[in-house]
Amino acid sequence: MITACLGPGILDPSGGPGLAGHLARYGSLPAADAVQAAERCGLHGRGGAGFPVATKLRSVLAASRASGRRPVVVANGAEGEPASAKDAVLLTRSPHLVLDGLQTVGRALGADTLILAAAPALLPALEARLAERRDALPVRLHPVAERFLAGERSALVSSIDGGPPLPRAKVPPIRERGVTKRPTLVQNVETLARLALAVRGDTSAAGSTLVTRREEISGLVRVDVVDVPLGAPLADVVRIDDGVGAVLVGGYHGIWLSAEVASSVALEAPGAAAAGVALGAGVVAALPASRCGLRETARVVGYLAAESAGQCGPCLNGLPRIAAALDDLARPARMPTAMLEDLLRWCGLVRGRGACSHPDGTVRLVRSALEVFGAELAIHDAGGCTAVDPAPFLPTPGSSP
Amino acid sequence: MNGAAMWYLNRASGIVALVLMTAVIVLGVVVRRQGRLPGLPRFVLVGLHRNVSLLSALFLVVHVTTAVLDPFVDIGPAAAVVPFASNWRPAAVALGTLAVDLLVLIVVTSLVRGRIPIVLWRVVHWSAYLLWPLAFLHAVAAGSDVRSGWALAVVLVCAGVVAGTAVVGWLLRPPPAADRAPAAMASIVSGAGRGSGVAVFRNG
Fold first, then answer.
1. Which residues on chain B are in Cβ contact (under 8 Å) with A310?
2. In the predicted model, is pLDDT for residue A96 greater than 60?
3. What is the DSSP letter of A221?
4. Shortest Cα distance, chain A CAs vs residue B194, angstroms
5. Residues with Cβ < 8 Å from A219, sequence gap 6 or more?
6. Residue (of A380, A10, A313) closest to A191 by Cα position
7. Which ranges in chain A are annotated with CATH 3.40.50.11540?
8. B178 contacts A309? CB cut-off 8 A
9. Is the pLDDT of residue B197 over 80?
10. Best of B187, B196, B198 to disrupt the A interface by mutation (most A CBs within 10 Å)?
11. Domain A293-381 falls in which CATH fold?
12. Would you tell me which CATH number, out of the four given (3.40.50.720, 3.40.50.11540, 1.10.10.10, 3.40.50.300), belongs to the domain A2-205?
């Protein structure tokens, strides 16, 4: 039985974010091959999809050799997920690990263009960190828009190329044709930081992940980021007791788990995938029992519908309809006839019909909410609601609660 | 065949082709803006756009053939595709020849639409907005009927319809993708508020 040893991990603040502290703690960056290091420790991406990093690096290398063009490496610190703060904290606390990862990957792929994409507020400090270094390959900083989809890989490529931060069709794939039509690797900043440790021979770095925790402690909502070993039980990451109604795992494209299921499941354990649990953007939010899960989900889905890229009909038209239906269900009032059947039908109509997985992820959240909060649905239909606290728990920037 | 009959056929097919091309432009804008004609599903509109354009091409074939065959005007077969190759009113006929060339390009690219790059298809298709004025100017310059009377009225009405359709089409253009989601949200929510239920279809 693994007990989670939650600690700062790669977010260790000792020594400060500057270069001197970084070198004192981790040493200088060796010339080891990033692809072999990723293979050896079995590193998976931390951007949400969990794709094996070595495979991804090799595919970009192959595309680069086939086309004869030097690839572009993009460090994705966009973090469009409002409930996630891990990338921002990582870029503030350990930026040199990310920059090391960027350099080592750039060298392994033979890239001549390295880009670090992050929120505009983080860029001045990152400029200072870049100025401290003496790297072989120059790094360009790119500000990202504050949109949910701005960090999607093709949206990021489009934005770097000067276009709108909206997803594009994946044919040809980004690894073959991305920034300025060259093979492009888009990798999450946490993945790059862990790769920087892997090339230094630290294989344990691939065995843990950053998690943004959101829970209510003594009436106050507390948000922090911790480094959690993969396979740790969820109950060790957030406190799950009678005060918790349900746990959101993965982010706004993740799923809800009831408190009973959450207290017995582990992140990334063999049985987790079968239960539909995936780490996603590394968000674990413990919804207090005093709040209404249906109202929270309705607000989040309303936010997701407003964040649609507006390019694909099923998403643009379907998500607002789903959001409006959830709004109706979140009210303690008689459910309109056939509302639930219509809602499930619309959910089936939008999956797989967009250029990106925004509608798929949203529908995943909706289905899990209808399942986990099924009892609450019946209570609302009868005119009541078990929640006593109407204040919003999950963040939805840009919309009124 | 009576030579005059061929000339009448030429003039009549020309005017009919212009009217049909006017209808094609209107249908094209309606399709592009996802509009409806009452009682008709949208795939019928798309089919109408294609079929009416092919019909207009057919009338054009008659128009060009009779012009070449007619003994009274010296228009050789080369003038059907090569501008300024006609001996009779070369400039006026050249306008029509250019229009025919564009129409051939548009029809051919549309027939092989799945097999050519979409950008190529779109650029050629947009030249329809060049084709119509060329056809109109050809009608005014080469057409002997269009000086006065009902033929002039028909041609002017067609010009007004095309201009009006283009303006309306431009005014109804969709906002950039990034701005569409808020409008979609607002239209759905207002539908729900009116009590008409959540299932209000935006497109019809």
1. 177-181, 184
2. yes
3. E
4. 13
5. none
6. A10
7. 2-205
8. yes
9. no
10. B198
11. de novo design (two linked rop proteins) (1.20.1440)
12. 3.40.50.11540
